[in-house]
Fold this sequence. Notes:
CATH topology of the largest domain: Rossmann fold
Number of strands: 14
Helix content: 25-40%
Oligomer: single chain
CATH architecture of the largest domain: 3-Layer(aba) Sandwich
Shape: globular
Structural class: alpha/beta
Order of helices and strands: EHEEEHEHEEHEHEEEHEHEEH
CATH class of the largest domain: Alpha Beta
Mean pLDDT: 93
Amino acid sequence: MLFNGGPMIFTGRAHSQLAEDICEYLECDLGNAEFSKFNNDNTFVRIMDNVRHRDVFIIQPTSYPVNDNIMEMLIFIDAARRASAGRITAVMPYFSYARTDKKDQPRVPITGRLIADLVATAGADRVILMDLHAAQVQGFFSTVVDELTALPMLADYFLNKDIPEEDLVVVAPDIGSSRRSRVFASRLEAPLAIIEKRRLGNNDRVETLNVIGNVENKYALLFDDEINTGSTMIAAANILADHGSKGVYACATHAVLPGDAAQKLTAVSNLNELVITDTMPLEERKKHPKVKVVSIAPLVGEAIKRIHEGRSVGALFR
C-alpha cells in the first residue's frame, strides 16, 4: 500500500511525552491536534494537519483516567477516518481492560472484547499493543494486531548490571506468569522459581502460599507483565526474604501503581530496585530513587517505521 509521505504521528493527552520520544527516534515532527471538553463533559478532537491518504499512527495508552482516554482515542480515530486518512493505526502500549478477558463469574462482561470492537468500529485498520496480560486478547480485535514485548529490553537492563550470573534467580510472582518468566529467565540464563499464591475475591488481597525453587542466598528478580497495587510484589518480596533471598529486584512492563502503591512497594526493605517501562506516564507519585525506567520509545518507533515500510515487525524479537 502506498501512502503520501512518511508516517504521521499523533498523540492524545494520555502520554504526550512518549509520543514526543517516538518522534525523536523517527526524526519527524509530532502532528497537531486540538482537544477540549464542552461544559456537558463531551470530548472534542480536531486534527489540524492534512491526513488525506497518509499513514496515521495515534499514540494513546489507556491509562488513568482510563475511560476518558479510551473515548479520546475512539474520537481521534473517527476524526482521522472522516479526514480520509490512508491507514489508521491505534498505538496502545497499555491496554487497560486486557485482564477482563473471560467470563470467570456469572453475569460479568468481557470488557477487553468490547473495547477491541469499539476500536475497530471507530475505524482503526491496525493496532499496536505491548505485553498483553493474556495472549488471547489479540483475538478480540478484528483488525491487524502487532503485539510488541519489552522483555528483551528489560533483560538487557539486568544483563548490564553487575550481578554475578550464579547469584541470580528469576521468580514468577504467581503460577499464571510462569511461562513469561521462563522466557525471561532463559534470556538471562538464570534458573526459575515460582511463587504459589491465592488471590482472595475481586479485591487486591493476596495470600501467598509457597516458593517452588531455590532462592536462598540469591538475588531474586521478580518478573511480571503488570504491577497494579503492588500487593503481589510486596507479598512475594516478604516470602523471598523468609526463604533466604539476599535481595529482590522487581520488574514489569506496565506500572499502574495507583495512590500510594509506589511508596508502599519501594518501602519494602529488601527491594533493591523496581524496574518498569514508560508504557504509561510516570507521575510524581511513582518517582523514587529505587524506581528505574526503561523507555519503549525506540521499540515502538522502530515498529512504526517497519509497518510503514512494509517490513517485518516480528524480526525485532528474533
